[in-house]
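Is this the right way to post structure tokens for a design question? Let me know if I should format differently. Anyway, here goes:
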């Protein structure tokens, strides 16, 4: 089950579309992966990363929008309020930005890396990032929010990524132009 080398997976890799498994008991293995995920997120200048994005099919996310690092196991949105539209990028879909409407405020329930229950209330960008990462655990991606015309516009980029995902390593992610990189 453990991946020896974790790297960011690109659009087109089947794991990004799978539903992540719930974690029954937090173990050392999970803490290891969460640390590596945080490292990869920072290295890619992202502000959030979900385990499927590094090839691990388990319900874990890391988030840091600059106000501290969250490491979460089995995160779930238990309350939503309001709405906001943000231009989002995704480390697995470099070069693509999509405007996504999400709740403006959320309450997230999860376990910390030691399996202790935690609840976080977030709004604005932080709420957006939590929702983006929790989407990843359901196999949902920002491109699923794209309108028909947006889809037409990004079609060739997605095709190119799919080709790249088949055989190549990820070079520098190019999500700089998006407001949020997740
Ligand atoms: Ni993402």
């Amino acid at each position: 089950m453990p991946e020896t080398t974790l790297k960011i997976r690109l659009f087109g890799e089947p794991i990004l579309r799978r539903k992540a498994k719930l974690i029954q008991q937090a173990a050392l293995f999970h803490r290891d992966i969460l640390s590596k995920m945080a490292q990869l997120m920072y290295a890619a200048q992202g502000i959030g990363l979900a385990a499927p994005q590094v090839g691990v099919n388990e319900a874990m996310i890391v988030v840091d929008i600059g106000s501290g690092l969250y490491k979460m196991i089995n995160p779930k949105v238990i309350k939503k309020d309001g709405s906001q539209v943000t231009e989002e990028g995704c480390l697995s879909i470099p070069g693509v930005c999509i405007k996504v409407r999400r709740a403006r405020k959320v309450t997230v329930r999860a376990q910390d890396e030691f399996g202790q229950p935690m609840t976080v209330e977030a709004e604005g960008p932080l709420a957006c990032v939590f929702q983006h990462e929790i989407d990843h655990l359901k196999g949902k991606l920002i491109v699923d929010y794209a309108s028909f015309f947006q889809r037409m516009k990004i079609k060739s980029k997605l095709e190119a990524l799919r080709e790249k995902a088949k055989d190549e390593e990820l070079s520098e992610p190019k999500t700089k132009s998006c407001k949020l990189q997740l």
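Format looks fine. Someone answered above. Worth noting: The chain has one domain: 14-181. The pocket of nickel (II) ion is lined by residues 90-92, 132, 136, 182 (CB under 6 Å).
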